[in-house]
User: Which sequence fits this backbone?
């Protein structure tokens, strides 16, 4: 501007007071120009030191106009420039207001459209529910007439005379649905040998449905003990021995006792204080469990024994404690797995433990120098005998040796990708006597964006045999498919709400398959897929909004049923077992949710068990559940309660009810004494 140009002759002729005033106006104009730089988007993009603060406010235009009036007596050109800048500020502010109004109008239209859509969906659901209620009322009325029960007052019916009205209506609906199923041949025309072979290939749910709709098949199933043995052993159920000389009784003991405890959320709860920081992950195999923590250690501990086909006699209390400890990581352990043994048998003892950190360090630990089976420990006479040289001190955990250490990073970017990993099931051990040999394929990924997914062949550690290119999302969970349709498929739960899947049989990068999505959710970062697990041709994943999704590998983009919001907060861990028909999830709401498969059952309810802290890891089998929480304790829930079990919560509830009833009437002893005195009089 001409007002502060270096013209010495003008300054010499100017009055000192006018000169001071001109300098003050120059400084004010410079300050205004500097403030305006923060409201000029193009300038902020070219100069990163300036952070854009949006359109300039109107008071800056008023200050520019006032400055123009004061400067006009010194320099008219500078005054005109200030007025032009004030007009630009007002124009920018007006344009910003128009754009904000337009955005509000668009948001209002979108919200109105969404409201109408929800109203239409709710109206259709209401119509469907009304039709369903009418159909149930009709079926119930037909069932009442068939059973000879009066529809006007069904409460007067004696329950001991036959099945209830609800049971008859439910059975009638099942019979009608069975009649609509397409059949290629007449089941009753099959010989007994063929029919028995067909029944042996069915699962527990299919067998129950077939036995309900066909009396001949039900009689065949009752007399075929080999069928019940297959259901009990191949599905990984407990107990793994005959009860009263029959596998059928063993199956029904597990169904009536253990499965009922799962449905009711009734467990014997064991607590192991194994770490000095929070527990980030847990895993189990056979009768061993492991947990990784932020204290950089991996703990190996014993679970309630289940593996062998005979009951354990005297090692139970010595076994259910910390047995070994893996020390060597320099960062918090974020993921752990147990591997080795017979890959097809989940009860076989493991031989290796794997652990990984967020910095890309993966370690393999050998369990060959420590007891992995309580039955073998029971046969060892020196177990727990401190007077015998070389005996195992059950109070002191053994130091587990590390046999392999790898730093898994992306070659191009150096990003680590060992924060989450999974190993293939059913892999044979080999090399070095099992102390660091091959145990199959490892799929690893990290939470950093662009790290991608890498698959390693542990028979020859080195470069990844399959490298999925990086994508614009972090990975929060990874799992191998363990079914007939997805045995070579890697699932990755990503931060953008998508579960990505790849077939690793394709060389190099792997073949990208159809993906599953979390779906619609509200709130910030609620669409994130936080965890994933797969088994039996199904895969389940949890979201940050608290929903648990279950999909079929053959139709991955469609859920088996509408996702349920099993948790009120973020889901951190999920585990699925297709043979047992169970999905277990844990979240930040300090609870464990248990869902039964298939999810399409009418009476499928979510069982919820409370925990003291938020849950970060879960692992389970037919009768045991291992939980890692945001504290130093690893919790084991045992659905096989055993003899003499006392439900503490039920006892406390009964005492509260008893105190409520006797409140204001003195103690029970005084009431009994008063009653005796009154009888004596």
Assistant:
């Amino acid at each position: 501007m001409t007002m502060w140009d270096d013209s010495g002759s003008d300054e010499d002729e100017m009055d000192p007071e006018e000169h001071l005033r001109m300098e003050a106006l120059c400084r004010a104009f410079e300050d205004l120009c500097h403030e305006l730089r923060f409201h000029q988007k193009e300038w902020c993009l070219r100069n990163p030191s300036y952070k854009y603060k949006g359109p300039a406010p109107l008071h800056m235009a008023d200050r520019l106009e006032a400055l123009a009036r004061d400067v006009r007596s010194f320099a008219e050109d500078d005054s005109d420039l200030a007025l032009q800048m004030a007009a630009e500020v007002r124009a920018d502010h007006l344009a910003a207001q128009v754009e904000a109004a337009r955005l509000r109008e668009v948001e209002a239209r979108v919200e109105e459209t969404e409201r109408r859509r929800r109203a239409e969906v709710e109206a259709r659901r209401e119509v469907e529910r009304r039709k369903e209620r009418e159909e149930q009322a009709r079926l119930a009325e037909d069932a009442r007439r068939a059973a000879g029960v009066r529809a006007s007052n069904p409460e007067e019916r004696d329950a001991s005379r036959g099945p209830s009205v609800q049971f008859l209506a439910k059975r009638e609906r099942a019979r009608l649905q069975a009649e609509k199923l397409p059949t290629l041949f007449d089941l009753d025309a099959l010989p007994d040998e063929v029919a028995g072979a067909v029944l042996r290939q069915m699962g527990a749910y299919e067998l129950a449905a077939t036995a309900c709709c066909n009396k001949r098949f039900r009689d065949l199933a009752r007399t075929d003990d080999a069928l019940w043995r297959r259901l009990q052993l191949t599905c990984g159920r407990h107990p793994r021995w005959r009860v009263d000389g029959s596998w059928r009784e063993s199956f029904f003991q597990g169904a009536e006792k253990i499965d009922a405890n799962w449905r009711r959320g009734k467990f014997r709860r064991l607590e192991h204080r194994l770490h000095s920081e929070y527990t980030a992950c847990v895993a189990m195999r056979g009768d061993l469990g492991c947990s990784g923590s932020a204290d950089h250690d991996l703990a190996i501990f014993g679970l309630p024994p289940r593996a062998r086909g005979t009951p354990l006699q005297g090692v139970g209390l010595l076994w259910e404690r910390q047995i070994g400890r893996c020390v060597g990581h320099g960062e918090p352990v974020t993921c752990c797995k147990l591997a080795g043994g017979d890959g097809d048998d989940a009860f076989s003892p493991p031989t290796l433990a794997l652990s990984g950190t967020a910095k890309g360090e993966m370690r393999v630990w050998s369990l060959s120098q420590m007891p992995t089976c309580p039955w073998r420990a029971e046969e060892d006479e020196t177990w727990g005998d401190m007077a015998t040289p070389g005996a195992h001190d059950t109070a002191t955990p053994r130091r587990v040796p590390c046999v392999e250490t790898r730093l898994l990073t992306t070659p191009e970017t150096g990003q680590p990708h060992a924060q989450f990993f999974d190993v293939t099931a059913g892999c044979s051990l080999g090399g070095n006597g099992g102390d660091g040999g091959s145990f199959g394929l490892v799929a690893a990924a990290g939470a950093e964006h662009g790290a991608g997914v890498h698959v390693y062949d542990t028979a020859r550690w080195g470069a990844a045999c399959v490298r999925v290119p990086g994508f614009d999302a972090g990975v929060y969970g990874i799992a191998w498919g363990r079914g007939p349709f997805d045995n070579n498929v890697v699932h990755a739960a990503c931060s953008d709400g998508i579960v990505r899947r790849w077939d690793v049989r394709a060389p190099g990068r792997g073949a990208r398959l159809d993906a599953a999505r979390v779906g619609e959710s509200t709130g910030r970062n609620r669409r994130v897929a936080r965890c994933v697990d797969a088994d039996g041709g199904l895969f389940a994943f949890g979201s940050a909004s608290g929903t648990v999704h279950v999909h079929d590998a053959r139709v991955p983009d469609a859920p088996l049923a509408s996702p349920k919001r099993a948790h009120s907060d973020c889901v951190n861990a999920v585990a699925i077992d297709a043979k047992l028909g169970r999905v277990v999830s844990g979240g930040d709401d300090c609870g464990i949710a248990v869902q039964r498969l298939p999810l399409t059952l009418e009476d499928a309810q979510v069982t919820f068990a409370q925990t003291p802290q938020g849950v970060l890891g879960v692992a389970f089998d037919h009768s045991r559940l291992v939980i890692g929480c945001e504290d130093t304790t690893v919790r084991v829930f045992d659905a096989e309660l055993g003899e003499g079990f006392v439900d503490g919560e039920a006892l406390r509830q009964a005492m509260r009810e008893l105190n409520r009833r006797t409140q204001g009437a003195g103690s029970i002893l005084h009431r009994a004494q008063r009653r005796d005195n009154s009888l004596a009089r």
The two ends are 116 Å apart (CA to CA). The first strand starts at residue 268 and ends at 273.
